[in-house]
């Protein structure tokens, strides 16, 4: 057993298999992928990595497994999945996930490619220890009752990143009682008693009786972190610029999507600075575009709210042409419709599993807050803010334009 000191959980104890997996190149690469990507341009101390986050997820998964009554083989597969859940991330994590998805059809939690390609070291470690790589991959993808522990509404991934991100940004909003959360997890079918009689492959992961406030705390923490950290306007501007720069980079070089997703953050930043200097140098220096448009859901037509990637890029070209700018000088940023995935988590109430959204009066209020916070942005160099704002109103059919820096 190897103990690693962690800034959030204290000592994280690794079993022999976990220690072997941590030493693989695929896992060590996570030392060079920042957990909060462009958020660190807002919060300077948010320099923690997906390496330490993955250790934290493993630690919380071990705690949850202890209360679920799993057999040794199943427990070993879940622990491995928790540890490896982020090895499929590309550089800058979620900021480049859309690019990788469009090019490969795979999200970061689909790691089958990693377990079957030429560099099969992770796969060999798993097989050498009697584990099925495909079963581990399915758990990471969130399949089955136990897959939800790794990727679901009550997953240990979310529990760790909320408290870890709050710790490193210095904000007080992501604090949740992870100890109670993992200790109160059950598999539906055992009456919320934790006896473990439910089939883990088919059962539903729930919080035991009396834990509606526990589930609500996770929901509130996520909502507040969305508002203050994850969707901070500076991070959104930088993230949108980064995505455009990456698209140009892939267009202008021989790098394919497979090689791209294996890059680390620093590799990508150097590559962007060389291949797409107009955007890459700005991102490196934090010389970011300003907001020409910043408007809420009520001022955006439904067709624009639901615009896809192609429609966003077409709007950018049209706005840029109207103002006489290069297409890279206008960025349209349309977030997905607001929602709180955690509201679908299940809590036992009076002996019956219920969706949190049905058991809690808080959910409706938090959903309303998410809708009010939703904003569409259009960004450009500071000297063109007024002209781009006017053109964007016409092109996007906006009923009102709010601009700011």
Shape: globular
Q: What is the oligomer described by this structure?
A: single chain
Number of helices: 21
Q: Structural class, please?
A: mainly alpha
Tell how many strands the DSSP assignment holds: 9
- Unreliable residue stretches: 190-196
Helix fraction? 40-55%
Q: How is the largest sheet built, in terms of strand order?
A: 5-9-6
Gap between N and C termini: 51 Å
Q: H/E series, N to C?
A: EEHHHHHHHHHHHEEHHHHHEHHEEEHHEH
In this structure, how is the largest beta sheet organized?
Answer: 3 strands, antiparallel
Strand content is 5-15%
**Mean model confidence by pLDDT:** 92
What is the CA-atom radius of gyration, in angstroms?
A: 22 Å
Task: Set out the fold topology.
Elements: E1 2-6, E2 10-14, H1 16-22, H2 25-28, H3 50-66, H4 72-84, H5 97-104, H6 112-116, H7 121-128, H8 133-140, H9 144-150, H10 156-169, H11 178-183, E3 185-187, E4 205-207, H12 212-230, H13 233-252, H14 257-261, H15 265-275, H16 277-285, E5 290-296, H17 302-305, H18 309-323, E6 331-333, E7 346-349, E8 352-355, H19 356-359, H20 362-373, E9 375-380, H21 385-396
Antiparallel strand pairs: 1-2, 3-4, 5-9, 6-9, 7-8
Helix pairs in contact: 1-4, 3-4, 3-10, 4-8, 10-12, 12-20, 13-15, 15-16, 18-21
3D structure, described in words:
The protein is mainly α and 405 residues long. Helix content is 51%, strand content 10%. The chain is built from 21 helices and nine strands. It has helices spanning 16-22, 25-28, 50-66, 72-84, 97-104, 112-116, 121-128, 133-140, 144-150, 156-169, 178-183, 212-230, 233-252, 257-261, 265-275, 277-285, 302-305, 309-323, 356-359, 362-373, 385-396; strands at residues 2-6, 10-14, 185-187, 205-207, 290-296, 331-333, 346-349, 352-355, 375-380. The protein has a three-stranded antiparallel sheet with strand order 5-9-6, sandwiched between helices. The protein has a two-stranded antiparallel ribbon with strand order 1-2. Strands 3-4 form a two-stranded antiparallel ribbon. α15 packs across α16 and α18 (309-323) crosses α21 (385-396). The model is unreliable at 190-196 (pLDDT under 50).
């Amino acid at each position: 057993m190897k103990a690693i000191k962690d800034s959030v959980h204290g000592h994280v104890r690794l079993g022999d298999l976990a220690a072997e997996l941590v030493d693989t190149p695929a896992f060590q690469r996570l030392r060079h992928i920042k957990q909060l990507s462009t958020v660190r341009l807002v919060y300077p101390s948010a320099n923690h990595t997906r390496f330490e986050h993955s250790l934290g997820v493993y630690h919380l998964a071990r705690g949850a497994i202890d209360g679920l009554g799993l057999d040794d083989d199943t427990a070993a597969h879940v622990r491995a999945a928790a540890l490896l859940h982020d090895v499929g991330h590309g550089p800058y994590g979620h900021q480049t996930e859309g690019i990788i998805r469009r090019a490969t059809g795979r999200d970061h939690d689909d790691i089958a490619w990693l377990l079957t390609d030429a560099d099969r070291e992770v796969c060999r470690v798993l097989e050498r220890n009697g584990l099925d790589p495909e079963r581990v991959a399915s758990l990471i993808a969130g399949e089955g009752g136990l897959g939800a522990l790794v990727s679901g509404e009550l997953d240990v991934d979310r529990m760790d990143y909320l408290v870890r991100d709050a710790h490193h940004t210095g904000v007080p909003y992501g604090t949740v009682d992870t100890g109670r959360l993992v200790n109160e997890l059950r598999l539906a079918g055992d009456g919320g008693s934790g006896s473990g009689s439910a089939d883990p492959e088919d059962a539903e992961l729930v919080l035991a009786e009396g834990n509606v406030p526990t589930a609500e705390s996770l929901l509130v923490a996520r909502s507040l972190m969305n508002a203050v950290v994850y969707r901070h306007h500076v991070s959104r501007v930088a993230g949108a610029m980064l995505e455009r720069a990456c698209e140009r980079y892939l267009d202008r070089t021989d790098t394919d999507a497979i090689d791209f997703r294996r890059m680390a953050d620093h590799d990508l930043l150097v590559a962007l600075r060389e291949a797409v200097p107009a955007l890459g140098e700005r991102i490196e220096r934090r010389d970011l575009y300003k907001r020409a448009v910043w408007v809420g859901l009520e001022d955006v037509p439904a067709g624009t709210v639901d615009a896809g990637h192609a429609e966003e890029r077409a709007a950018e070209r049209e706005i840029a042409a109207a103002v006489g700018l290069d297409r890279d000088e206008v960025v349209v940023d349309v977030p997905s419709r607001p929602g709180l995935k955690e509201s679908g988590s299940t809590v036992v109430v009076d002996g019956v599993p219920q969706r949190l959204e049905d058991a809690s009066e808080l959910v409706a209020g938090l959903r309303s807050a998410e809708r009010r916070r939703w904003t569409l942005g259009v960004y450009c160099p500071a000297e063109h803010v007024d002209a781009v704002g006017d053109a964007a109103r016409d092109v996007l059919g906006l009923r009102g334009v709010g601009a700011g820096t």
